[in-house]
Structure to design on (188 residues):
């Protein structure tokens, strides 16, 4: 299970450890795992950057949200965050609480405005039968020790994930035109 991530043109290999997939996701987006433990986290919406409280439930949700990106292959640009939010919303928000649930709903609505066809296609393709990592009782370290393929199967998706096309990155990711280092992950 030591396969390496290829490029953003391909989904993360199913044989890759989830921990390595998460680390590749964090690196390509300019995020750090230490950000999960910080009191505040950076977020952006429609190009406006701001900070939000990183409550315990929020940090817990971000960690799983990032693994949803690893499994599905959706990017972190506005359309990709709309897709992942629609996928999460359709899979269910039980246990997230009002604050984090509202962030996911807002992301899905923004996706519907920014990339309506992609967001609707994601909604339709995402069955709520399997749930998401928000409902999983698996400890985070156990999820990290799985292969990406095993994670995808647990989430009821094909070995290649569900996204099509290149993983686009948010505007502040390394290598983007407006890139500047980010300390934490965007709010789910």
């Amino acid at each position: 299970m030591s396969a390496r991530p290829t490029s953003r043109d391909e989904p993360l290999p199913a044989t890759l450890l989830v921990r390595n997939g998460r680390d590749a996701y964090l690196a390509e987006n300019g995020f750090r795992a230490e950000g999960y433990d910080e009191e505040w986290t950076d977020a952006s919406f429609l190009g406006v950057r701001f900070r939000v409280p990183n409550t315990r439930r929020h940090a817990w949700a971000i960690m799983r949200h990032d693994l949803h990106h690893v499994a599905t292959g959706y990017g972190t640009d506005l359309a990709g965050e709309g897709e992942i939010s629609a996928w999460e919303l359709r899979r269910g928000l039980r246990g997230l609480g009002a604050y984090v649930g509202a962030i996911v709903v807002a992301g899905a609505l923004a996706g519907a405005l920014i990339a309506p066809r992609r967001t609707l296609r994601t909604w339709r393709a995402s069955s709520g039968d399997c749930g998401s990592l928000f409902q999983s009782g698996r400890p985070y370290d156990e999820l990290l020790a799985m292969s990406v393929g095993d994670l995808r199967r647990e989430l009821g998706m094909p070995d290649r994930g569900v996204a099509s096309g290149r993983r686009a990155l948010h505007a502040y990711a390394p290598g983007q035109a407006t890139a500047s280092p980010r300390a934490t992950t965007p709010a789910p």
Remarks:
- The helical segments are 18-29, 56-72, 78-91, 97-114, 116-125, 140-144, 148-154.
- Residues 98 and 104 are 10 Å apart (CA to CA).
- The chain has one domain: 18-154.
